[in-house]
Amino acid sequence: MEAGTRARGAATPALAWERYADPGRWAGWAPQIRRVDTAAPRIAPGATGTVHGPLGVRVAFVITAVDEAARTWAWDVRLGPLRLHLVHGVEDDPGGCATWLTVRGPAPVLAAYLPVAWIALRNLVRP
What we know:
Layout: E1 2-9, H1 13-21, E2 35-38, E3 48-52, E4 58-67, E5 72-79, E6 82-93, E7 96-104, H2 107-124
Antiparallel strand pairs: 1-7, 2-3, 3-4, 4-5, 5-6, 6-7
């Protein structure tokens, strides 16, 4: 199944993109992320790592695509047998910027994840 969400906010597109581009900043705007372990200082195709969530949850990831000019990127995440493919983007918006997310994976996982992702996107686009 595929589903998505989006958020608008007053952050500049450049600021929102930098918050995505630096994995060290993800925990600052995504409440589901406590920390990220990766050797990559910036998202790039082939970069791998682990996202640490609440209750000791550890999610392995690999970044599959990045287009800096278009401000889009994609990654695959894995938690045991569960697999998700996520595509993110940042766009200009009259009030600042908009960000969107499309996720492909099992329907029950998407139903649980998308509300949390929407909160993270709202934080991402705050100035």
